[in-house]
């Protein structure tokens, strides 16, 4: 008895949920334009207020050596005489981002993505990264970076191509400066200054 009651209340819940779902499918506002799948919205509909400009500064720790690397090579550069720039190498990273330059400093996010050696003439990386923040008002939000990183230059600029959460509609740029590079291990600490427009 108790079991069948349990099952029927489960079924009832399911019924309510599915009918609510189909109701919402029917009542969801349909795009009104002639093409049938798009419409023009007022920014107020998405509760977008004034656009802000934020400056974020954090330190990127690219750890390639030791027992717990955060950057791993997934494609080796072919051993031709092009390899003086490592052309063809690809690495996957999940690098910690900290508030200060020390690795023990407060973790504010992680840089997750791929970089690859995309230049024949110099050491120039193609960076395709998401900065995933885990602290403060940007906790849970991400910024997406897609750009060229000529690692030997003192300052490299990469576009912010978008974002999520607080960073929806983001655009801007990131400047990278290498603060530490261990020639023996390849480990690096890079300062990032990110200037980003968002709502
Ligand atoms: C590249 O390697 C080939 C074969 O080893 C050699 O003949 C050629 O001169 C090299 N080219 C350059 C630009 O070093
Ligand atoms: C960030 O958000 C997660 C998920 O909501 C939460 O568990 C965590 O405590 C937050 N961290 C900080 C430092 O606010």
From TrEMBL:
Gene Ontology biological process terms from the UniProt entry: phenylpropanoid biosynthetic process
Residue stretches in coiled coil: none
GO cellular component entries: apoplast
Intracellular or extracellular location(s): Secreted, Extracellular space, Apoplast
Function: Dirigent proteins impart stereoselectivity on the phenoxy radical-coupling reaction, yielding optically active lignans from two molecules of coniferyl alcohol in the biosynthesis of lignans, flavonolignans, and alkaloids and thus plays a central role in plant secondary metabolism.
Family according to the record: Belongs to the plant dirigent protein family.
Subunit structure: Homodimer.
Protein name (database record): Dirigent protein
């Amino acid at each position: 008895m108790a079991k069948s009651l349990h099952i029927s209340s489960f079924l009832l819940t399911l019924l309510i949920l599915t009918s609510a779902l189909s109701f919402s499918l029917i009542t969801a506002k349909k795009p009104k334009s002639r093409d049938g799948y798009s419409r023009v919205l007022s920014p107020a509909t998405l509760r977008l207020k004034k656009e802000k400009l934020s400056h974020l500064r954090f330190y990127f720790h690219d750890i390639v050596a030791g027992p717990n690397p955060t950057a791993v090579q997934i494609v080796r550069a072919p051993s031709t005489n092009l390899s003086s720039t490592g052309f063809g190498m690809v690495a996957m990273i999940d690098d910690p981002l900290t508030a200060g330059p020390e690795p023990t400093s407060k973790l504010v996010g992680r840089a997750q993505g791929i970089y690859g050696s995309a230049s024949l003439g110099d050491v120039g990386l193609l960076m395709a990264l998401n900065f995933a923040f885990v602290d403060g008002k940007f906790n849970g939000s991400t910024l997406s970076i897609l750009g060229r990183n000529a690692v030997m230059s003192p300052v490299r600029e990469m576009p912010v191509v978008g974002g999520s959460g607080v960073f929806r509609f983001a655009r801007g740029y990131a400047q990278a400066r290498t603060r530490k590079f261990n020639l023996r291990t390849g480990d690096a600490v890079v300062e990032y200054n990110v200037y980003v427009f968002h709502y």
